[in-house]
Specification:
The structure holds two protein chains of two kinds.
Chain A lengths: L12 H33 L4 H11 L4 H26 L7 H18 L6 H30 L3 H23 L34 H18 L1 H11 L1 H6 L4 H18 L2 H4 L14 H12 L3 H20 L8 H26 L23
Helix pairs in contact in A: 1-14, 2-13, 3-7, 3-10, 3-12, 3-13, 4-5, 4-6, 4-10, 4-12, 5-6, 5-10, 7-8, 7-13, 12-13, 12-14
Chain B lengths: L2 H30 L7 H15 L4 H25 L4 H24 L16 H21 L1 H11 L1 H6 L4 H27 L10 H11 L4 H23 L6 H22 L15
The chains are: A mainly alpha, B mainly alpha.
């Protein structure tokens, strides 16, 4: 649904939109409060002084150029997995398979980069590597969409099962592909590598921030453009909001869902580029653990909107980097707790906010938040 | 394959079935009341953690702590999706993430490691047979509860047609909260069992059993007896994988590890293609209005 200006703009539109803005901000305020409460509670377990924890957190993230670089480095894959979950969500699907899709895509990229002929120039090999990661993720994601279409198997269960299957498969393949006595593949050629930004900005020296960030930002723009301004985006959103109406309008719901899952899987598959093409230049067993799940947090917090996802990815990128910075005081797994708390509080507060918005007097009511932000209820089997 | 091998397989199936069965029953109970329960995996994991943490005060305390933490998580889930009408699938997945993160943080706080607890000597010698008996009893008990009790009738009516149930004076809120809490209790039995069987807590030790149990429930058409049978079927895939790993067949390890998930996927497809007579509860996933 396009965001129309409030129809009542002439009658104190500014105060009504201010009220609506306040209401819409409530879930985030609520999430922040709960997350902070959890942090203080759990850091007591480790008898860490909260002030020290916060100081270390700040210095390690936005307090230095190196820290900012690392935050952006951590943000990059979350942009892609967040967009992946959000894209499926806009089409009324929930892709929980980001873990498997990202890891599968990462292995494909590493193999593509390592086994291409060395004579291939960077202008060809980098896009080819990215494409291989996208395709591999798209195949895994698309399979879940296909099974939903053909056998009515719910994508949530299927993507979770596929995570486990892909994980076992990757471990099995690793036995054949990994360099002896290691848990990583052979390094990719120099021509397939994405450059680190410290090449141009010496202040970033030591930070792993690399050109994958631009890939991620480009995909954010592409996501917004496709969803809001293309036939495909319109069709996907229609299927997401009302599959019956979409079918009545002559859209093939099954095919569109499969396509949405494939695109979603492909985006997650791209997420491995940050590590494989830009940082270590090989696939390493288990490097991506948690990135897919954090993508869910990013998508839920970003409410399916491109700008929201960008901000949410930055937030979780900051938390991930900050988690490393404070690891000596409190375990960085605290971040996993916080991201779960954020999802839970936003998901819980959203229906209340919608209810409050709908209760505003008609003259004060702005256009309601698009229901496509959250997957609609009654979507099938589990 | 000798007779002894088959007997060993049978025993392994019985041993491994317990968490699958209790979680599948918990899922069935919850979803028949109209509440989707992806959170089963989280219930299993957190109750396993509770058991390990309670084990320092003896085996009985371990059981009590395990069950209590499962029910506490279920209460949290009920608050979020029944009371506040949060999205059931998103909240369920998030609850699993919370269980994983929380278990690692608490492990670090108590044992100084984020991956596993030490061996819990207290739990040595406690018979898994007791749990097996309990599981059998629960299968029959849940069948009776659902189909031959007042609560069961209310529960099913709330899952099929909440408006009609409300018109007859049934509190949709209360029935669903009770269903979610009971589902947490049932699933927690499986989580407690996991720790008693492995005698330590390992991060992510639920290993997807909650998700597989959910698939078993779907495969069983949201009915306790077939759901439990499907749960045993999926458990036997795990048992077969373990037995074959130890055998001299030299099948690739990863195939055996993927076996339960592959079989589950296949079962879902077969069921989807055949489209059996029983369907999901009509009001499944629709928040009360």
């Amino acid at each position: 649904m396009l965001d129309h200006p409030p129809p009542n703009a002439a009658f104190g539109g500014s105060s009504s939109s201010l009220l609506a803005f306040g209401l819409r901000a409530l879930p985030f305020v609520w999430a922040a409060l709960l997350a902070m409460a959890c942090t203080s509670l759990l850091s007591r377990l480790f008898s860490a002084d909260p002030r020290t924890v916060y100081r270390l957190f700040f210095v390690g993230t936005w307090g230095s150029v190196y820290g900012v670089g690392q935050v952006l480095f951590k943000t990059t894959p979350l942009l892609l997995t967040g967009l992946s979950v959000a894209l499926a969500q806009r089409a009324g699907l929930f892709n929980v398979g980001g873990e498997g899709q990202l890891a599968g895509g990462a292995l494909a990229m590493a193999l593509c980069g390592a086994y291409l002929p060395t004579s291939v120039p960077a202008l060809v090999s980098v896009p080819l590597c990215l494409l291989s990661g996208f395709v591999c993720g798209a195949l895994i994601g698309g399979l879940a969409g296909l099974l939903r279409w053909l056998a009515g198997a719910h994508e949530v269960i299927v993507t979770i099962l596929l995570n486990f299957i892909v994980r076992a498969l990757l471990v099995g393949l690793g036995g054949v592909l990994f360099v002896k006595e290691s848990v990583h593949t052979a390094p990719i050629h120099a021509a397939a590598q994405l450059p680190r930004l410290s090449q141009w900005l010496p202040a970033l020296h030591g930070s792993a921030l690399n050109a994958t960030l631009f890939v991620g930002l480009f995909v954010v723009l592409l996501y917004a453009a496709i969803l809001q301004h293309s036939h495909l985006g319109f069709a996907l959103r229609t299927v997401g909001q009302n599959p019956d109406a979409a079918a009545a309008a002559g859209l093939s719901v099954g095919r569109l869902r499969t396509l949405a899952m494939a695109l979603s899987g492909g985006l997650a598959g791209l997420g491995g580029a940050n590590f494989v093409l830009g940082y270590k230049h090989y696939y390493e067993d288990g490097f991506s653990a948690g990135l897919g799940y954090l993508g869910i947090a990013v998508a839920v917090l970003g409410q399916g909107k491109a700008l929201g996802i960008l901000v949410a990815a930055l937030l979780f990128g900051t938390l991930s980097q900050g988690g490393l910075a404070v690891n000596a005081q409190v375990p960085r797994e605290l971040i996993d707790v916080l991201s779960a708390v954020v999802i839970l509080s936003v998901a819980t507060a959203n229906p209340e906010v919608r209810r409050l918005l709908s209760r505003l007097p008609q003259t004060l009511r702005p256009s309601l938040a698009s229901p496509a932000n959250t997957p609609g209820p009654a979507r099938g089997t589990p | 394959m000798s007779a002894a091998w088959w007997l060993g397989l049978l025993l392994a199936i019985l041993r491994l079935s317990v968490p699958y069965v209790t979680a599948a029953l918990g899922g069935t109970l919850c979803e028949r009341a109209g509440v989707i329960n992806i959170a089963l995996e989280g219930f299993l994991l957190i109750s396993a953690l509770g058991t390990a943490l309670g084990a320092s005060h003896g085996a009985l305390a371990a059981v009590a702590c395990g069950l209590a933490s499962g029910v506490a998580f279920a209460a949290l889930y009920a608050l979020m999706v029944v009371y506040f009408r949060g999205d059931q699938i998103v909240s369920g997945v998030a609850l699993f993430m919370l269980a994983d993160g929380l278990s690692r943080v608490l492990l670090k706080a108590v044992y100084g490691s984020t991956s596993n607890s030490p061996r819990l000597a207290v739990l040595e010698g406690s018979g898994p047979a007791l749990f097996l008996l309990a599981a059998l009893f629960l299968i029959v008990g849940l069948h009776v509860l659902l189909y031959s009790s007042v609560l069961g009738l209310r529960l099913r009516s709330v899952g099929e047609h909440p408006q009609a149930a409300r018109a007859l004076g049934v509190s949709v809120l209360n029935v669903r909260v009770v269903a979610v809490l009971l589902s947490g209790l049932l699933t927690a039995i499986g989580g407690v069992y996991l720790v008693f069987e492995q005698r330590q807590f390992v991060a992510l030790m639920s290993g997807g059993r909650g998700f597989l149990a959910l698939a078993a429930m779907i495969f069983g058409g949201w009915r306790p007896l077939p759901a439990a049978a499907a749960a045993v079927l999926f458990a036997s895939a795990e048992a077969l994988g373990i037995k074959l790993q130890a055998s001299d067949l030299h099948l690739p390890n990863f195939v055996l590890q993927a076996l339960p998930y592959l079989l589950t996927l296949l079962a879902l497809l077969v069921r989807g293609v055949l489209r059996g007579s029983s369907h999901a509860p009509a009001a499944l996933g629709i928040p009360r209005d």
